Amino acid sequence: MSEMQYIIISLLALFSAVIAACAIQVILHTKLVSLFVDPPDIRKVHSAPIPRIGGIAIILAVLVTVLFWYALSEVFGIIPLPDEFLLSILAAVVALGIFGFMDDSRFFSMRVRDKLIAVIALAVATVFLFDIHPGAISVFGFFEIPELVSKVIAVLWIIGLINAYNLVDGLDGFAGTISIVSLSGVAAASLFAGDFAAAVLSVIVAGAIAGFMVHNAPPAKVFMGDTGSLFLGFIISMLTIHIAGWGWDGISGKVPLVMPLIAGIPILEVFVTIVRRYFKASERGHPFKRIVKYIVSPDSSHIHHRFLFRGFSHLETCILVGTLAATLIGGAVCILLVPLFYSPLIALYLIIPVSFSLYKLGFGGRFKKALKVSKSRYNGYHKPELIGVIESDGRLFNYLSSKRSKGYSFVPLVNEKDLPLIANQLKATIIRNSSDLPELAVRVAKELSTMYGFSPLSYTGSQNPFNIILNKKAPLENIDVVHKALQGFTDEIANNNAERKNKTGEAEHALSAL
Questions:
Q1: What's the predicted TM-score (pTM) here?
Q2: What are the φ/ψ torsions at residue 357 (nearest 5 degrees)?
Q3: Which of 144, 148, 146 is nearest to 128 (CA)?
Q4: Per residue in 334-381, pLDDT tens?
Q5: Which residues lie across from 465 on neighbouring strands?
Q6: Are 169 and 157 in contact (CB under 8 A)?
Q7: DSSP character for 172?
Q8: CB-based contacts of 222: which residues, under 8 Å, 6+ apart?
């Protein structure tokens, strides 16, 4: 590609981003916004109603920009995608747009079963009606999957990825971040293979998401809703199928590795969720039918939830998970560029950051038992009791975290929007009173007491007063541990003040001697 064509691709991405951002801004200032409000509940991480209009803006931006690209493709000098690919995208835009529009509005509430039926119908139509599939797939050069089986795999892939993106859309900026990373990987791989049309489409969709992220970055003003998450899952599944169907030597035999790595975090989330829920249900002795129902039941133990439980903010979670996603995408691109023999070695190397991340997030016990490394999923590990900390300067939280009290984990409570999720996991909350305690912290403390059933337990140290409020539904087992930790904190402050006073006295004495 020439330098001018790269500039044109960048302008198309910018055009798509501007349309998405402006569309959201316009809708926010109309009465239509009241039709698409997402109310808070126990599983969600927002505490105020937020409109779900991002998906509509993303689809609108992609549709307008793609049609503009097709209309002027001869001028740009970039060959557009095949007609069947364009028609399948347009059909998906219409179907998912109507379906998501209804589900995101406050007038309809679609059941999970109805959503799944619609997604299955879309996947089957895409593969068998529009003939979008990778063809026969070579598996590491050892054997070849026939075309008919490949079509079935393509249907399952589309269904899985659509539902995977719907699953990870649970945090401000989260789904948008990993989508942009995945699409960047698709664009890079497409450019290496000389498939410029796929690269252009990837960049256009990434631009639309970037425009949406202007309003969805933490703290979010809008959500993408099912309209956006279903559409992104479909587009990325289509692009990865397109990559799998290349005749390029770089992809030959590597499809089973490249496709999951480009999809990245959503596929990892689905895999972990299924395994985690299956073994949890099995441990309780549920019959198979009940286990299946349990696997598809929602909960608050996803990857992004666990980051929040460990005290990370929405932005920090997006950055950390985005970095992991970029690592997987980088691995996929490397696999495309090296000989087939080295591909499994790169995949084995990528297991290290993934396994380490999952273990640190508390998934290790389940997988140890699944791999029969341990008879108990805990293997000496017990889920720590979560204790919130409300203060003005962070000194108490840093002190408690540095002590690493066995069986306890501390999280700073500085944001009202995290309470609907975290409050139900907290055993207690420590409030360190001070004259400069922020008004937001005071509101958080009051909300815990009035809305989440926390009852006060007074405590006063020698230097710093504290209030402890306990979760009446699931109280802290050993409150003496907290009292001891707080006493240690007050003693440390007293010692620091004494040392500072002595140093000040010595300095004054030295000055007087001069």
A1: 0.73
A2: -65, -45
A3: 148
A4: 998 888 888 889 988 898 888 888 887 877 665 565 555 555 444 444
A5: 460
A6: no
A7: T
A8: 24, 28, 50, 51, 52, 53, 54, 212, 215, 216
